[in-house]
Amino acid sequence: MPSLPGAVTDVRRRLDVWRRTRPKRGPIPAELWDEAAQLALLHGVNPMALALRLDYYSLKRHVEAARRPEEVIRPAFAEVSVLPPVPSPECLVEMERPDGTRMRVRLSRQGDLVVLAESFWRCRA
Q1: How far apart are CA 110 and CA 88, in angstroms?
Q2: Residue whose C-alpha is closest to residue 35's, from 48, 25, 47, 26
Q3: Largest CA distance in the chain
Q4: Is the pLDDT of residue 93 over 80?
Q5: What's the alpha-carbon Rg for the chain, to the nearest Å?
Q6: How many Å apart are CA 120 and CA 27, to the nearest integer?
Q7: Considering only 20-29, 62-71, 75-84, 98-107, which range has the smallest mean pLDDT?
């Protein structure tokens, strides 16, 4: 096997020590899985599974878990200020939900805005 980067060698050494010194069979500590997953993100799952002597599919699951974005904290309340209507033949409305869904529409009557906004915010992607 070609020479391994220092971080890979360190994690492999720590995994070997854990394997030799654990009192009984049990799961690999989360800290070692996290480090192995970070290395797999950089160097690939298969090369790291081989280098660290880990099960490919277990490492792949930990990598996928590491890629998931943190749960988005959504506000329970959003204040919307309504300005007095300005005489205009049309208005442009742009809305974006926390999941990234966007909507941009031109309205000829501002009264349609309330119905449109309620529909957009209630819709689940």
Answers
A1: 9
A2: 48
A3: 78
A4: no
A5: 26
A6: 45
A7: 75-84
The candidate with the shortest Cα–Cα distance to 9, out of 50, 51, 44, 56, is: 51
Q: What is the pLDDT of residues 50-64, one digit of tens each?
A: 999 999 999 999 998
Q: What is the pLDDT of residue 49?
A: 94
Distance (Å, rounded) from C-alpha 10 to C-alpha 19?
14
pTM: 0.52
Q: How far apart are CA 15 and CA 59, in angstroms?
A: 13
> pLDDT tens digits for 96-111?
877 778 888 777 766 6
| Other Cβ atoms within 10 Å of 117 Cβ, number | 14
Compute the distance between CA of residue 52 and CA of residue 49 in angstroms, rounded to an integer: 5
Contact between 56 and 49 (Cβ < 8 Å): yes
Are 44 and 54 within 8 A, CB to CB? no
CA distance 15 to 13: 5
Contact between 35 and 48 under an 8 Å Cβ cutoff? The reply is no
